[in-house]
Amino acid sequence: MAQTNVPIGSPTAKKVYSVAVFSETQRKPSLRRNLVGPAPKQSAAAKKLRGQTSEDYPIVRVTDLQNTAGDTVSVDLFNIIKGKPTMGDRKIAGRMMALKTSSLDVRIDQYRGGVDQGGRMTQQRTVHQLRGIAKGNLAGWAARLEDQLCMTHIAGARGYDDAEDWVVPLESDEEFDEIVVNPVQPPTPNRRLLGGDATGASDIDSTDKMTLDMIDELRLQLDEMAFPMQPIRLPEDPAVDEQPLYCLVLSPRQWHDLQTQTGDNAWRTFLANAYQRANGWSHPLFSGNPGMWNGILVKKMYRPIRFNAGDDVRESDASGNVSTTQANAKFDRGVLLGAQALAEVYGKDAVSGYYANWHEETSDHGNTVEHSVSFMGGKRKTRFKGSHGEVTDHGVYAVDTAVS
To answer: Coil, strand or helix: which one is 108?
Structure first.
């Protein structure tokens, strides 16, 4: 039987591979995939019109731009009203409480990646087979890019780890600002916890490591906040109202330090707590043998946000002004996540009619075939100025600890 061959550059290939690459990118196993909520049900009419996924998850995906021209979407937050009640027959005129709002603009841009499959004599494969190889490689590359962009924005830093699987370059790279699209903003002071007695990156020392006591401190700070971070609300979670859930994501070394500084009995309890919370229902956020302590789910991320002694570290004050200091010792940055920590915006490609576009063409007088994929999107950590006037990271808490 003759093999079906879709010619290079055909509309059929463009459509099929545009959809396939984007879908595969979004479904690749990753922490980010488990942090994005499902699309809203029909009852959530306003969210459906805005093309927004569930606001109960750390990453909210917005597709406002899929049917309209433009490269920016605005995310708004109305502050909680505050004022004395009006009692008895006292006139209420002139005592109305004002609605105050903050807005965050998230810009999108196009990013592309391509594969040169080589010449005929080098490859000796059919066009159809090579498309599959190119698609798999480009989908894996795009998935890593998406994960790394998410973590860079959420953590408020790229860090200095530069393992071979990093796609997002170091902040010193001349194209860094262009690649991240929106500003990478360091943690606000009211959403940052440092190990031990450290007060900033410049005085973290080798003893300021991750411990269960730090998780207790995080829980205490969450409970004492006048306007605490919104918890993560997972579908069918039996304890969603009685036990508000937050997720602490640690680097492998932070996880290692946590384990080595925790007694065997406490560590068994730490692991058992996560199992008990997930017992009777399942959600991928609880996969991978996580732990749980004081209502905070703890998971390991495999791509650290790391600073070495002497590295530049950007820090923010309560007004959002950024300054640079130097790390005193090697430390990693974990993140505690609540709901709506990151806005992830996608626009529709005008050529493919989808969120991604697949393109292929020949070069070198038809001897070589080149494949490329492009996406239109942007990500930004949600940050607002509250009614108290303090700039605040909305759904994320940075956790900086020394690592062994």
So the answer is: coil
Q: How far is CA 91 from the centre of its chain?
A: 48
366 touches 332 (CB < 8 A)? no
3-state SS assignment for residue 131: helix
What does the pLDDT look like over 8-19, one tens digit per residue?
A: 665 555 555 555
- What is the Cα–Cα distance from 175 to 168, expressed in whole angstroms? 10
pLDDT in tens, 241-296: 778 889 999 999 999 999 999 999 999 999 999 988 887 677 778 888 899 999 99
Identify the three-state secondary structure at position 320.
coil
**CB neighbour class for 368 (10 Å; exposed up to 12, middle 13-18, buried from 19):** middle
| Integer angstrom CA distances of residue 116 from 359, 360, 370 | 12, 10, 5
What is the phi-psi region of residue 359: left when phi exceeds 0, alpha when psi lies from -120 to 50, beta otherwise? beta
Alpha-carbon distance of 384 to 382, in angstroms, equals: 7
In this prediction the pTM is: 0.84
Output the CA angle 178-27-288, nearest 5 degrees.
Answer: 105
Instruction: Tell me if 338 sits within 8 A of 232, measured CB to CB.
Output: yes
Per DSSP, the three-state class of 362 is strand
Q: Which of 75, 72, 25 is nearest to 55 (CA)?
A: 75
Residues in a beta bridge with 306: 332
65, two tokens: 């731009």
Tokens 């690649």 sit on residue: 179
Contact between 95 and 83 under an 8 Å Cβ cutoff? The reply is yes
Of 104, 1, 16, 34, residue with least CA distance to 282 = 34
